[in-house]
Design brief:
Blueprint: H1 3-6, E1 9-10, H2 11-17, H3 23-31, E2 35-37, E3 40-41, E4 47-48, E5 54-56, E6 59-61
Antiparallel strand pairs: 1-4, 2-3, 2-5, 5-6
Length: 73
């Protein structure tokens, strides 16, 4: 398996890096219950992998292909 599939990332950073909003804005969406991961309401600090099913306001989100420099974790 490649590292990008098995590595986990903070949800708010993944969505912010994808250009959907700032990290703070995405944290607000999480707090408002607008985001689900694997059919469960997301919570602040949740970590996700490329295998997770992410839905924002009822719309599926395609996990971006990340390189080693796209997040600083």
């Amino acid at each position: 398996m490649s590292e990008e599939i098995t590595k986990d990332y903070k949800l708010h950073k993944v969505l912010a890096n994808a250009g959907l909003g700032s990290r703070r804005e995405v944290e607000n969406w999480i707090g408002q219950g607008r985001i689900t991961v694997n059919d469960k309401t997301a919570h602040i600090g949740i970590r996700v992998t490329a295998q997770d099913k992410i839905v924002i306001d009822g719309k599926s989100f395609q996990f971006p292909v990340l390189d080693n420099n796209s997040t600083n974790e």
